Amino acid sequence: MFPRNFLTDLARKYELSPEQEEVFLLWWGNGKGDREISEQLHVTVEAIRNRKTGIYKKFSITGTGANKANKLRNWLETEAKKQNVKADLQPDDNLDLLVQEVKQKIAADVTECCGTMRVLDMTQPLDLARIYTDVSIIKELTGLRRIGYDEVMDVCTREHFDRFLVGTNQKRVTSFDAVNKLQKLIVLGKPGAGKTTFMKYLAMSCLNGKFHGELVPIFVTLKVYAETRGEPSLQEYIFSELQQRKVTRDSVERLLENGKALILLDGLDEVKKEDDQRVKQDIDKFSRDWLNNRFVITCRIAARDYQFEKFTDVEIADFDKQQILTFVNKWFQKKSPSKAARLLKNLKENKSVKELAKNPLLLTFLCFVFEEKNNLSERRSDLLKECLSFLLKQWDKKRNVDRDVSRHFRGEQIYKKLSSEDKADMLAKIAFRSFVSGEYLFQQEDLQQQIKDYICNLPKASSDPDAHSLDLEVVLKTIEHHHGLLVERARNIYSFSHLTFQEYFTAREIVRECQWEMLVAYHRSTMERSFLIDSRNVERLR
Questions:
Q1: Is 33 inside a domain boundary?
Q2: Domain residues for 14?
Q3: What is the pTM of this model?
């Protein structure tokens, strides 16, 4: 570091305040980080950073983040040489060596956590690098678009549904481009959009030097952190986890201080209700305390009831044709390449099933089924029934996730009391009503009224005092949040996540109510008549 008298002379010459001078001396004379200085001076870390901002201004140093510190360091070196002052400086490559040293210590742990994926009923995990297909990012959240209902209805037909509403006509960027351009990012997505898989791939790519190899990946499953005994802060949790891998606290602080970490916080929506506020406040504080680092948070889009000031919200787009092709080929490349071609042919010939393949989780499901049975069920109703069962009952259960994050407890609890059969019946009535009116979209107010009518007319509603005092907006958000079968396409405008599901639920209601005359009357509708006829087997639909 630099001699104290040299620093003191500069502080006086450039008129640093007494508070700035004491930070300046500890910073460049003793090599202390912000947290060490704050503890020694008994002030907050934020106060130390405010003083540093003033120091930069006094020395006319511009820039952002670690770049400003490097500029000041270079300027001090130049001044020291002019005055023949000997400085004991750590070379920059020492920091790079520290990054590589820490990566080596955490490599096995990161690989164990992030190097594989396992979903559905897989008997063994898959190598992530072999199967991963990059997701695309759209910067305009679809559910926040301000589009009038009448405006949408004028152009929304069965043929134009995807292009107009699902975001296929929006500009996409690659996931790595988004993370590279935006230092603090919240990646939102529907259930099964591939958020966790994307985060795992980011961690592995950083570890292996394929993406920001100069950084150390720190992957945190927020649900696990939130439920850790003793409720440690996020900082203490990260320090503790790394210390278990023989990384010292001083080393972690040095990395964070110099912006050498890629902080990956996965699954904000999976945090339990009682931990929700604490975790969000902790994330906010940690991201401000260590602001020079890169941050990525993932969350289901319907669970977005927060705002981190310095973060940018983006959304994971559905798979396009090329991504579906890539994923299927990767899935079968080592097992049976010929199956990939047959599955792609099946999808091409079956538009309603192909629509499901736009969701990475559902595409995984289709590959899994095809691998086992060598075909997609001849009865599409069987396939969709199994798929919906997975979304309604099994997906969260398999990952031990209890979604109880809403702050409006009553609305969510009412929905959670419904059986899977009740939920399916309610969605079937909603789908059938839209079929009768020839619509694919629902205004939020009308949709909430349908939900209320269904719940309040259940036999058990008469004995449930909460059933008639619902927070309907919360119930609707809960449906969207838990399994994503209804999604907000624009402000206060909803639809089914896939029209195939809407058609399935309509057929289910027609079967249940024996509305065969109506089926004949509406056979010219945009729904696939062959699918409805295929769905007449009552037992299979139920």
A1: yes
A2: 4-89
A3: 0.73
